[in-house]
Amino acid sequence: MLHDQLTPDRVVDSEAALEFMKEATKLATNAELEDIGERLDAKSADIGRLLGVGEIASLDEDGFKCLLGMMFSLRRKSGRLIRANGMDTLRDELSLLLYGGGSPAERLDRFTGAVNGVEEAMVLALATECLHFTDPRRYWLWTHWIWNPESGTGAMPLVVRDEVDLGGDTVGEIYNNIGRATAFVNAEGHSAGYAGSGRGLFGTDVFLACVYAVYMYTVFRVKLSQEFNRILPELPELVSRVLGVQSMGEQDA
Length: 253
Description:
mainly alpha
């Protein structure tokens, strides 16, 4: 388990983190990665306008579809979620998740147990994206490309030491452990410079997405044909897509 007395050097595999970022910067310029960090700021502002404490009560189907359009694994799932839960339930559960009583872990456990219609991993992504992007100073991102507890894969285990336990008995407990690991990666990353593509945790989001992209390229080179590899997105596009900001870049262009 992670404990508060641990130091970054006992949690973060700095050598691996720097190596992943070195590989990423062979495939993307600093300017491209910084642009993604700026788009995360814009995404946060957009989600804040939809889910702010004074706005969430008026969230309608169009607003919900707009919200999910900013989330990689959920872009085409708004209809399924609305049909399975209804807008009243979705609005109420999002309000309780973001502004209800109890710890973040307790609220996350409640949300993932109350919302139906898609796989639990997608409900989890919806919850943590909403938490993180409405208040990025308090909440962190956890999706299965960051850490998949079933397969043991994702970006996070590639940059923390083997003895760091990211698991837990509940979704909320795992979220807390991911949060502690993220805090260490964020502190080390901004100190060493590999999380400098965005403000605060957004820089760490970009870094972890880069780690995931480099890992994907490595796996695909080994397992897939050269012809298939040529159709893979370039790293800036892949990072933008998993962070849900690719369409923002297309609109800007």
